[in-house]
Amino acid sequence: MNWISYIMYALMLTTLTGSVWTVLWCVACVLLKRSGNTKWIYRLLKFAMTGYLIPVVFLLLLVYYRLSDSITGFLFQMTPGAEAVLLMVFGVWAAGLTVCGFIYIPRLVLFRGICRKHIPVSRDINAMVKELCREMGVKVPVRICQGYTVMIPFICGIQRPCIFLPLGSYSQMELKMILTHELIHYQQQDVFWKPVFVAVCCMHWFNPLVWFAARQFQKWSEASCDWDCCENRYSSKEYFQMIYDMADTPFGSVRTFAPTWLAGENELTWRVKIMKKNQGKKQKKWVAAVIATGAVLMSTVCTFGAEAGLRQMYTSYYMETASSVEEIYIPVEELPSYTAEEQIGSLADFEGMEVVQEDGELLARAGIINWTVTDKMVKQTAQFDKSIEDTITVSVFIDPSDKNVRVGILEPDGRLRYITGSGWVVHTFTVEKDGKHRVYIYNNSGVTVTATGSYN
């Protein structure tokens, strides 16, 4: 299995995980809105977004596949047909990612340009920021600047946060509300999550649920700030009047990479409704905890259920494409005559080699070999039962055809029996011991080879 296959599998399983978590977040959101838990809605949304960010299911399955001797299915197995499809899908995905790069990289350049062009603020404003930081428990030093190109207040920077203000005059109350709002964004770690959402949208550009989640992030991050500002600090009338005054302000690329005050009048109307609905309500933490726990548990169950469905679908596809590959094999009797003397070895022969084995009874019953075997690697089949005087016929084509490899069987007691050959390698082994056997290919040729064939 090549690196493109791993990328595509990781992407598919991760977008599946994120989609399930996003749908369950929507259900949790409906329940939490009734109890006024705005901040918990926003926290759960960030949790749901990690489903698109971290390939948890892919990593668990990969580790389980490597360590387990009983896994069934073909999710990490390849046929030429499956590999061709994945290569085509990778090309489409890479093209979409490139388009996203052409869209967002210029915006990032403009955003960084805006951040560079700034001038210092007065001592009074700096003193106000320090006082607010002390009151709100923000221990990291926060800088504050003004700039001609800054159209709307925003904060950026994780280790060295900086608040940017447009040039202009503000009343002391307006300035305190603006600075408080931006500091809450920092406390909510929005300066980290905003660019992360952009990266996730680029990686999963084909998934509409990702773009939906990104839009919800913009709305609920601001709603969470609104609740914190109006419930604990300022008059909601004065606060929203100040935001309304900014409603027609252009903010272009700033909105892409930094938390911003609003995305338009429709969003402002929605935020006012949310604030009115929740204002005065005590956030019921126990309700939020129960719903959040239920959402996490349901997310886990649904994710692995969906993954099991995906694995079953791929298993069916694998068997179909594997069968089509098997049909083109040349019968043993029509192959060029090939004779080689059997040799005997032991597991000590594998020392210094990377040993990779297929696992699962389905793989053994299929009897298909379609492997990429790197140099210094031993690739083994799944275990299968054979009795004394049965035979195991192995027929494989090695490419490049001038490279010698060992093709053999691993007996129940650990003894190796093999032949060495190149090109078409065909041999029938007579079983000498009852029990579980494996077919293996030992590559010490100095290059990567592909082995295509079957055994029975």
Please give the number of β-strands: 15
Q: Given the structure, what is the number of helices? A: 13
Determine the mean pLDDT.
78
- Given helix and strand content, the structural type is alpha+beta
* Beta-strand residue percentage: 15-25%
Shape: elongated
What is the helical fraction, as a range of percent?
Answer: 40-55%
Radius of gyration: 31 Å
Low-confidence stretches: 68-73, 323-330
N- to C-terminal distance: 23 Å
Return the string of H and E elements: HHHHEHEEEHHHHHHHEEHEEEEEEEEE
Report on the biggest sheet.
7 strands, mixed
Key attributes of the depicted protein:
456 residues, 17% strand, elongated, 4-stranded mixed sheet, alpha+beta, 13 helices
Give structural notes:
The chain is α+β, with helices and mostly antiparallel strands. It is built from 13 helices and 15 strands. Strands 5, 6, 8, 9, 11, 12 and 14 form a seven-stranded mixed sheet that branches. The protein has a four-stranded mixed sheet with strand order 1-2-4-3, with helices on one face. Helix 1 crosses helix 3 (56-67), helix 1 (3-34) packs antiparallel against helix 12 (285-327) and helix 6 (172-187) packs across helix 8. The protein starts with a helix and ends with a strand. 33% of the residues are buried. The model is unreliable at 68-73 and 323-330 (pLDDT under 50).
